[in-house]
Amino acid sequence: MSRLGAGFLLPGGALEVSLLAVAALLLIGAGVWLFLSSRESAAQRERRRRLTLSRTGRMGDGTIIDVRDCILFYSYEVRGVSYTTSQDASELKNLLPTETCTLVGPTGLKYSSRNPANSIVICEEWSGLRPAVPQFHEMPAKESSHT
Asked: Which of 36, 44, 118, 139 would staple 40 via disulfide (CB 3.0–4.6 Å)?
């Protein structure tokens, strides 16, 4: 015997409800899987940050003050505010010179106009690193023998 009205099921309705519940669980599971699998890793977020700054950042001048294990420590000034920060360039090691100590000195950089503390010195598409200027040592002049 079936009753019609809110909250009551017709005969055979239990099967439909079960199928809808299974479909809903499958959709929820697929949604959770897509959400979890689409999340970026820290390395992916850092790469995206570097590339965004490379494409949209403003250029400036700075000074690399130290290099340790592919971490570039540098300082710069934007609109009268001084910033000292670092960039981990270990993922870009192939773009760095073998003697990283030669990087100490003037450099170019790109920074976000909305957040000047967000800056880079190097990325996959751009580099503000300046080639090291060769240091010439003055050789003593040879004595000439004019007679």
From this structure: 44
